[in-house]
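Support request, please re-run this one:
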Amino acid sequence: MPIVIDENLDPSLYPLAWLVGAWEGTGAVQLKGENGEEVGHAIEQRLTVTPNSAKGLTWVMRTWVLNSPAPEPPTSAFYEKGEEKSDASQQSTDTTLVRELLLEEKGTWRTTGVLPGQDEEAAKNAKPGSPESYLSHGVSLTMERSSAFGEAPAEHWAGEVRGPRIQLATQDLAASSGAAGSDDSHGARMFGLVGGRLMWLQEVGSSLSNLRPYLSVELNRAADEDVKEA
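Re-run finished. Output below.
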């Protein structure tokens, strides 16, 4: 279906219009265990993506780790077999579930224009919302992260957005993610809008050709005030 675009959005950000808003949901993360092994944990995540005055989108993400088993299999739109409240800790009212703040990211998304080698005229004449109507645009995400494992320097991610899909990669992944590998300097992120839900995952590894799952979430749209008060 066609992506609804806010007329007040800067035209350079139209390819990212579907990302704008407040989102919340759950997923799984792989963290370093006591013996250096990877241990799966359930997580809760909330994020906001809002236009700013610098022709970018401000990204604010918070992720809490929960004291419950990680979902099996990891919930993600990108796995082959299908889809399936800012205190440091908070206790649920109906169980003894406790959550602790794991990650907080703040950054800016920008687009860098239409990537070369595409038929722009054909896309313009195609049915809105069809695969043929989408063009690939360059996209970047520059962010800083704080976590339970320490502060991190700025990270620079780059890739492309095509319709309701984004692929990003970085070669300067900060070591404060809590992943088990000691040489996890590379990372990839994939985002998708599926049935009105925002699904995204991150993979980490020693190179872009040697990545493994790190984080995966499925998010629903939320009221802005609910996320801001979390």
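The two ends are 32 Å apart (CA to CA). The longest strand covers residues 98-114.
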